[in-house]
Amino acid sequence: MSHWETWAQDQLAAVRRDGRWRSLIAYDGADVSGKVNGRDIVTFASNDYLGLASHPQVRAAAHAAIDRWGTGATASRLIVGTRPVHLELEAAIAEWKHTERALVFPNGFSANLAVLSTLGVAGTIFSDALNHASIIDGCRLAAANVKVFRHCDVEHLGDLLLNATGPKIVVTDVVFSMDGDVAPLQAIAELCVRHDALLVVDEAHAVFGTEMPAIEGLQLLRVGTLSKTLGALGGWVAGSAALIDLLINRGRAFIFTTGLSPADTAAGLAALHVYLSEEGEALRERLRYLIDQLIVAHPSPIIPIILGEEAIAVAAAKRLLEAGLWVPAIRPPTVPVGTARLRIALSTAHTDEMVQRLKLALSEQLPANCGFLDASR
Hints:
Number of helices: 14
Strand order of the largest sheet: 3-9-8-7-6-4-5
Structural class: alpha/beta
CATH architecture of the largest domain: 3-Layer(aba) Sandwich
Strand content: 15-25%
Oligomer: single chain
Number of strands: 13
């Protein structure tokens, strides 16, 4: 056996020993109802919060784009990978987010990599402790001076900013993907203005929208995805014309990759039109209603059930799957050690009956001392 094969086997043995083995499971379904290994299941694992991945207008737009431009962009955006629909989508995103310009990427991960690796070289990055992996990796690629502030701790962030010199970037998720809580944007924005820092917000999971504070002098760059709220694929950055042009010319994660496919671009544009319509407003109201069926006034469709030990979370997820409900177990390194959890993601594609079925199953399967059971009553 070769050195690398031996090394890989040793690494895999360590993963198994730590109880963190992961494997792929094929889900045969277009929305929240599908099959796993031939069995009917309802998934509460999808980030398609508004059910737009299967919306007729979104499907039709993707089909039409394939008919006109084929399946792939065929090159990087700076070569021959830009289609008219890319520019249409970017203009629509800029209008939606009230910015001068926007730029579309193949996925949200590469959008964060481009932003932070390009801008982070100029100074110090201040990052929330629970920011997404794409933000963490973007900071690493920048080889910047990175200061991590305690999760949503504005006072700690203020202390770090006060003691720093040179250009500053503060980066935070708006909705945190594993906890479903929301960043204190008003207070963070006020600190950024006070310390002349650029604020970068990742709106990937902000299905209900992100109302940015109207603070004079706020320097802001907005990042998001097409793959969650809008049910397609791709990432975007919205901000000033100067910052967008800099990403086009310096952002390696933009320059050196094939452009977003025409079908995904057109699907994202169609989904955005739905989102901004009366239908989109009704979908968000419906989602709010479903969330309240589990926990009243929870700020997002991401509902974590903290179970602590990894084995307990894995066993709970397995029992739920056997009952026909897919609620994934989330374990380190995705979340901190000792905070393994079930992660519920709600969608407007769920029926009332599905949510009540989940609620009943959780009451039967979760430990009696689980805090979720008290919070959901």
